[in-house]
């Protein structure tokens, strides 16, 4: 029995990378915003609706990019910042690492993101000055409303679109002005990958300047160093991998879309009680494929693994359930609790065949039938 993993990261083959590595060797420039990094920024700018290169900045990881963006807000240490409970723990880590106090809130049961009305309410009631809103597994977030809230209330908003290149790509193509910055992770498990890396896109030029400066010890050109930075630059090797991945994006997207469609078709036909994550309902491609079970089934992961199928509860029990973040929950989080108990990620990667999809759905069907029998 060959094991079907939940994910199979894929970057460019060594043979494809060799000429790039020689080019880096010839330039004798391995990092510090060299030619490869500039090329990747140029390519992203072109891909995202012919934007100015100055609107794109790159970092050593998605988490570093989030921290860089939040520290660029220049808010006093300890300022409260909303973050959803239903996200990857990295979102909340970034808030804390940026010197802000996470206020963990629940999400909307339909969109799986923080409801803009909640953001606005909390901004007035509780003196909350910032919000990290997460695009859940690549689903749309209401960008015009978020921009409007930022503009009207002065609250700082950042979109964690780590696995959402498809959404960010579509948004940036159709909208010139991007006052609310968007972060996309370039991690190997995400859609477009430099192995490790992160990108921020925003039309707020001051903010981009502060972020880049932060990622380079506070240094930007010959400006006096007015902020304490760190080292969060993207290396030339990583940038070269990123270029190749971005070139393959249309193909990657189409492949993943076909696999997702195959799942939807088979699951809808055979297991009509199963629902799909919001990005799937919207036709937005992400790097994971999440289903929602009609009721909790804690043993499902183990049962499928015993049948040679990998699954993952990508966001575990919610951020508030990690001991390190327990004290930051704003209150009860019933939607997250419910989603965490019923959501599971199925195998999803480029190279998966329709037979594999079939195998996974059949095993899922058997496991769910066994569960109903054993539950009487
Ligand atoms: C992957 C992910 C991150 C972290 O990105 P890295 O590039 O791995 O640092 C943050 N937030 C969300 C929602 C993610 O999925």
TrEMBL record:
SUPFAM superfamilies: PLP-dependent transferases. The active site is at 190 (proton acceptor). It comes from the Bacteria. Keywords: Aminotransferase, Pyridoxal phosphate, Transferase. Signal peptide: none annotated. One of its GO terms (biological process) is polysaccharide biosynthetic process. GO terms for molecular function: pyridoxal phosphate binding; transaminase activity. The modification N6-(pyridoxal phosphate)lysine is found at residue 190. Belongs to the DegT/DnrJ/EryC1 family. This is Aminotransferase class I/II-fold pyridoxal phosphate-dependent enzyme. It comes from Sphingobium phenoxybenzoativorans.
């Amino acid at each position: 029995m060959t094991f079907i993993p939940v994910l199979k990261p894929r970057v460019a083959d060594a043979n494809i990378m060799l000429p790039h590595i020689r080019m880096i060797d010839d330039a004798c420039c391995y990092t510090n915003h060299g030619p490869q990094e500039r090329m990747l920024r140029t390519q992203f700018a072109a891909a995202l609706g012919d934007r100015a290169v100055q609107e794109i900045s790159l970092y050593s990881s998605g988490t570093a990019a989030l921290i860089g963006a939040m520290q660029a807000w220049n808010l006093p240490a300890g300022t409260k910042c909303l973050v959803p409970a239903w996200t990857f723990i990295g979102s909340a880590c970034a808030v804390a690492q940026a010197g802000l106090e996470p206020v963990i809130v629940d999400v909307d049961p339909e969109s799986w993101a923080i409801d803009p009305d909640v953001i606005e309410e909390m901004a007035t009631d509780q003196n909350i000055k910032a919000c990290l809103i997460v695009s859940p597994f690549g689903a749309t977030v209401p960008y015009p409303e978020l921009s409007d809230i930022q503009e009207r209330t002065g609250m700082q908003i950042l979109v964690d679109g780590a696995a959402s290149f498809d959404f960010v790509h579509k948004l940036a193509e159709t909208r010139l002005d991007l006052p609310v910055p968007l972060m996309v992770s370039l991690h190997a498990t995400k859609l477009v990958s430099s192995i490790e890396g992160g990108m921020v896109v925003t039309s707020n030029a001051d903010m981009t300047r502060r972020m880049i400066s932060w990622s380079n010890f506070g240094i930007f050109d010959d400006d006096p160093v007015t902020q304490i930075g760190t080292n969060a630059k993207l290396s030339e090797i990583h940038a070269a991998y990123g270029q190749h991945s971005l070139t393959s994006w249309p193909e990657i997207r189409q492949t993943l879309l076909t696999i997702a469609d195959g799942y939807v078709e088979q699951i809808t036909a055979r297991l009509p009680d199963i629902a799909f994550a919001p990005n799937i309902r919207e036709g937005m491609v992400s790097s994971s494929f999440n289903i929602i079970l009609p009721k909790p089934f804690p043993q499902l992961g183990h049962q499928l693994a015993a049948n040679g199928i990998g699954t993952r509860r990508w966001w575990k029990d919610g951020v508030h359930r990690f001991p390190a973040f327990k004290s930051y929950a704003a209150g009860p989080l019933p939607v997250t609790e419910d989603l965490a108990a019923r959501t599971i990620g199925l195998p999803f990667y480029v190279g998966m065949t329709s037979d594999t999809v079939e195998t996974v759905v059949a095993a899922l069907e058997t496991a769910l039938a066994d569960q109903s029998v054993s539950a009487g």
